[in-house]
Fold this sequence. Notes:
heterodimer, A: 24 helices, B: mainly alpha, 22 helices
Amino acid sequence: MKPDVVRYAGAVLLFIVAFIAGREFGTKQERSVRSLLPQGEALHNSHGRHAAAGKNDPVRPFDETDQARLQVEHLSLQITSNARFDEFMDALRTWAVRNPEAALAFARERLNSWRSSLAVTAVLSDWANRDPEGAWKWASEKFHEDGIHIDPVLSEIGKTDVARASRYASEYAEKHPAQAREAYSSALRGILHSGNYDAALRLMDQAKLPPMSDGAEGKYALASAIASSWASYEPEKAAEWTLKLPGESIARDRSLVNVGQNWAENTPGQAAEFAAKLPNGLERDNTLTQVLTEWLRQDPSKAAEWMNLHQGDRSLDNAKAALTRNSDLLENHIALALSWAHSITDETVRRHNATALLDDWLQRDSAAAMNYLLHSPEISEDMRVRIIQSLSDLKRLPNIQ
Amino acid sequence: MKHSLVLLTFAVGAGFLAGHITRPDNEIVFRAEAPVVVGADATLEPPKEAGPEDGKEMGKFLPTVDKESALASAKVLSANLTSAAQLEKLFDLLRTWAICDPDAALAFALENLKLRRQEQAVRAMLGDWTERNPQAAWNWATNGNPQFVDAVLSQLGKTDGTKAWEFATAYAANHTNVARSTYVGALRGMTYAGDFANAARLLQEDKLLSAGDRTAVASLLIASEWGRNDPQGAAEWAGSLAKDDPIRERVLAQLGAAWSSVNPSGAAEFGAQLPIGEARREVVTRAINNWIDRDPIAVGEFLKNLPSSPDFDEAIRRFATHPTIVTETATAIGWAQLITDAEQRTQALVEIINSWMLRDSAAAAEYLQNTRDISPNLRAEIQGRIANQDLYSSRRD
């Protein structure tokens, strides 16, 4: 009986030893062969994305931690272009899959501040994607004094796990009230990225933040970020929500401007119509100016066409002033820029812009500018005298001084 | 005995086999051979389905999609873009589709996306296409899509700067109104790849760009990118430019600015060696601005060794009024006295004494009344300015 026990125990022991040997066999050989491959070959998919970037990616790191570290050290000494920096980043992210803390320490200590920040953000985002808890522990506990690293972690988690991101942000905000707003904003960034606007609104509603400077509840400090992201994709819904924010508050004003800006980036004509229908007042002026400035940047002729249909609207003055500063207009269509300046309703703003335009023109083509200034029927006599006086005060009119 | 031997041999064999099969690295080996799928509705197809111009890519396991289903999926996605995540999905799908049929995918983007989204999508696809087949991408851009010429050149410049420059020169010769943006496209790729010297040489030899455009391109693109990545190399190039070359001053200033953003002490040393003039003033001032918060002591050591010159006035003023120095009033005043320009010197002294007054107004007033460090005229000037400030503040209140 006893020899049987020994025999079977021995067999089990040998099985275990052989099992371990089997797991190890071939690994080193393959690793050494694979380590000869350029990093990019093995770790990039066809779009150049890093394999470590997502938990579902098919390729996993093959390098020993030491090898990866050496590779990072080596490449860090050869960063002489953005292409080389990208290669370095690939190696760093590969190393970070095995040892994120060491990779982060390297990125923080061995790179200049500009690159360090890029590297830390990339590594932390990857880590948060693979292991949200570990990344969050590192970012929230190790650097809790200033919270400098919580943003990439919370925003990455927010993309895929709304509940966890919301919980982390709330807990962190409670522990570190001075960084509460950053924590909520970071989580919101991820949540908004995934299009989970209802969850974003819920997080805003439960956010505990100090009151805003106008006395509005602190949670509304997060409103403009929600309005921005939402308006990029569902502008009507975002606008409807924004209009329900407390009236005459900073939060509502900022949010409306952001809705206008982001809406205008995709469908500026609709954004302009929305802004034009707002009740008269500062909110309307600010939103309309933002929308038209964005539209002018993208498509000056269409924006100008729309503005022509709304001649006489005082709240377009700021947008017209912005139009007169458009560099293309200034350099190639100065007469058109001046006619916009003359259409400004407010007399002071009109004179200021016309003077600035003529000043610019005088520097480039003084004869043409002087001819316009002295003879153009677009300028009233009273305005002509005032502009000449202003330019003379600035010593810009050598010929008539 | 025989039974034991068989048992033990079996245990060893089975254990080894089980261990080897289940070792984690096997997962890599098997999966690494599978094509990578990108895009929301991408389906795997054999490489033979790839488009004709991508034939040379057969061995690379490019992701491919069925053209019909790509179109259908892209339509659905683009009509329901409700988040950034969905936009990314659409872009991924378009890029995958563009591998098989770039013309169709690009046409879809031009037709169904607008403004910035259209530009982002088209540039991404064109970048990929240029990487695979530069001539085809170039033909597409130059035949009816000139707004994307620079995107092709930018990608091509990353791998073949000289060819990108040839394309750019040929195009710019017939489209002089967009010469600058065309060259910028090629140079952007070249500077990304670190091909700075070649970029600088080609720009130097160019005959199409105006002097103003050449200065802007050289300073904003080459000097700043080269300066940030390889400041010593950039400095050699800038130093080799002829003294009367109109781009020289701007290049030096831009190089200093770029250098100081990554290594302000190095940039300060470089700036101090430049000939007297605007570039020297700008580089040293900017370097000190970037350096002073990190290491004011080292900045003091550096400034000590500079010769007296108006070029360094602003840097010294910045140092003398820096929060860590200004609290040491005597030291700060000593530094301020080194400023050569009378107006800047007075302004610095006013700032220093103002700061002292906030901390100890009686001591500051007494010092101002009795000090021999400054001339009576200067004292009167400072007292006058401080009094005016008081008047201004009380009016404002």
